[in-house]
Amino acid sequence: MMKVVFLLVPQLHLLDLAGPAQVFSTARDFGLDYALHYVAEQDDVPSAQGATIRRTSPLPELEPADLVVVPGWRSHGFPGNGRLSPVARAWLAGHHAAGGTCASVCSGADALGQAGLLDGRRCTTHHLLQERLASQYPRARVLKDVLFVIDDRVVTSAGIASGIDLALHLVATRHGPGLAAQVAREMVVYARRNGDEPQDSAMLRHRAHLSDVVHRVQDVIDARFTDRLPLRELASAAGVSERTLTRAFGDATGLTPLRYQQLLRVERAEHLIGHGATVEAAARAAGFEDARMLRRLRAR
C-alpha cells in the first residue's frame, strides 16, 4: 500500500491540503491502494482559515514508493511561517535520497527548498511568490505560468487549486489517464494535465464535459479501446439510441465514438513505438488489424 503523507505546517491553507487529499481519497474509493496520513511536529496545527487540524502521527518512516505532500501556508513571502525544524528538513531530504517523491502546493515549495530539494531543479509556486522563491533559492530554476513541474521526483505546483491538477497527474502517471478521468469526474472538476510540458491525453482532453451518457460510453471505450466496439453496443451500455449517442458524443467531445477510440489506439501505438516497438507490432497491440490504418491515422 502506498502512503500519501501530508506534512502539516502551521497556518496551512485548507484547500492546499483538501484538494490533493480528496483526489487520493477518491482514488482509494475506486479500489486503489492509497493510505492517507497527516503528520506534523505538533499535535494540533492551526490553519490559515481558522480550523485546527490534528495530526495522525509524528514524522513516520517511509518507503521509496511513498509520496510526501507539503501543502502551502499563509506566508507573506515566506518570512516566519513555514520554517521547518532540522529534523523535518532531514526527513524530507532523506525520503528523496532514498528514492521517494516529495511534492508541494503553493508556498509549500519553500519547505522543499529548506530541505535542499530545489537546488539545480526546475520548480514553481504561486505567481505572487515566484520571485521570492527564486531569490531565496538561487540554484533553483523557477518556472512561471505553469500549473506544476516535475523534476527528478521533486514535484511543485502553483497556487491553491493547482494541487488538484498535480494530484490528478500523479494518479494518471501511476494508474493511467482513464482512472484519473474517473476521479476528476467524481469530483466534478476538469481532468487537466497541463504542467510545464505538453502532456496531452485524449482520455483527459475530451473529458471536460458534464454529459453522464457520454462519460459512461467513454468509460467503456477507455477500458476496451483495443476491442471492436459496435455503436449499438455502446448505445446499449449508455441506455440510449445510436442516434442519440452519436449526437450527444459529438456535442460533448467534437468526435464520434469511433474517432475517439481511434485516438486512444494511436496514442497507445505511439507510446509503444517510442519505446522501441515496430509500427507493425504497435499496431497489433493497439487493436489495429494491420499497420496500414495506423499509418494513415498517424499521417493526419
Automatic annotation (TrEMBL):
It comes from the Bacteria. Keywords: Transcription, Transcription regulation. GO terms for molecular function: DNA-binding transcription factor activity; sequence-specific DNA binding. SMART domains: HTH_ARAC. It holds the Pfam family DJ-1_PfpI. Residues 215-300 form the HTH araC/xylS-type domain. This is AraC family transcriptional regulator. It comes from Dactylosporangium aurantiacum. The lineage of its organism: Bacteria, Bacillati, Actinomycetota, Actinomycetes, Micromonosporales.
